[in-house]
Amino acid sequence: MQLTEYIRDIQDFPKPGILFKDITPLLSNPEATAHAVEKLLEKIGDQQVDAIVGIESRGFFFGTLLAQKLNCAFIPVRKPNKLPAQTTSQTYALEYGEDTLEIHTDAIKKGDKVVIHDDVLATGGTANAVCKLVEKLGGEVMQCNFLMELSFLEARKKMENYNIQSVITY
Ligand SMILES: O=P(O)(O)OC[C@H]1O[C@H](OP(=O)(O)OP(=O)(O)O)[C@H](O)[C@@H]1O
Ligand SMILES: Nc1ncnc2[nH]cnc12
């Protein structure tokens, strides 16, 4: 099965000049979704994982499925003021301006082995901020795991200290 057949290109979304990689055709097909989960799991292998940290919002789709398969915790990282208990925040630079992400402070214990998951690695700003959040809480980032990587945006250059794994590279 070719997963790329289930990823739709949308020109100029959400802004002119952006070629948006839309995973809704993949999510609408249970066989393709199961195949994507298997491919993401292959990247994780048989290392011990205490938690999958999924990034709002598209990182939640496969993140919960991965955690269920690995029989480990799923931990959401959310946009500001969405999580109800005490949070830890990380602000990061966007192309223009900045943004903030939050995690529940009690979600990760010191020494927990964490895999960060999202659908897309683009510039790497988001994933890099989530690595910092996990580390602030004492977690160990074992891998950053993505369905897709937009390699021309060179996120790996700003994430040299992390193990980055992507199922599909554009
Ligand atoms: O590598 P970066 O340049 O930081 O970009 C990648 C992020 O952008 C997208 O999320 P988006 O902000 O569109 O939010 P959404 O998942 O809620 O749609 C994507 O799901 C990643 O989280
Ligand atoms: N081109 C793109 N398609 C889908 N999600 C993205 N997140 C950042 N860039 C993206």
UniProtKB/TrEMBL annotation:
It is an enzyme of class 2 (transferase). It is found in: Cytoplasm. It comes from the Bacteria. Its EC number is 2.4.2.7. Pathway: Purine metabolism; AMP biosynthesis via salvage pathway; AMP from adenine: step 1/1. Pfam families: Pribosyltran (PF00156). InterPro entries: Ade_phspho_trans (IPR005764), PRTase-like (IPR029057), PRTase_dom (IPR000836), UPRTase/APRTase (IPR050054). This is Adenine phosphoribosyltransferase.
